[in-house]
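Hello,

Our lab assistant flagged a job as stuck in the queue for most of the afternoon. It eventually completed. Since we weren't sure the result was trustworthy after the delay, we are filing this so someone can double-check. Below is the sequence as submitted and the structure that was eventually returned. Let us know if re-running is recommended.
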Amino acid sequence: MLTCSTVPIYDIRQNSNFAFTADDLANLRHLPLYEQGRSDLPPETLATVGYTVACYPYRANNPSWQGYTVITLNVLFVIALGTVDRGKLAFLSEKMSQDSS
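-- returned structure --
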């Protein structure tokens, strides 16, 4: 069964005191939401994703699936850390391509 819910995106781009300590993580709900609750980040955003992983045996009426394991990746929260300038990102990508040649 697939269930979806809104994943909060917290914004620490202006919070230099956030250090990923146990206290910081315990108080995530007190952080400001990214752009007043917007539910998507631009591709150039550096972010931390908090998630859990669970595995369980697949159960279905189809015997050919017997023995398979299902994995679920449950995203709990996202923390926006910063954004990268598109020009700098293109430069870095180009430089990395040259360095690997």
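-- support follow-up --
The delay was a queue issue, not a problem with the job. The result is valid. The helical segments are 22-26, 86-99. The two ends are 46 Å apart (CA to CA).
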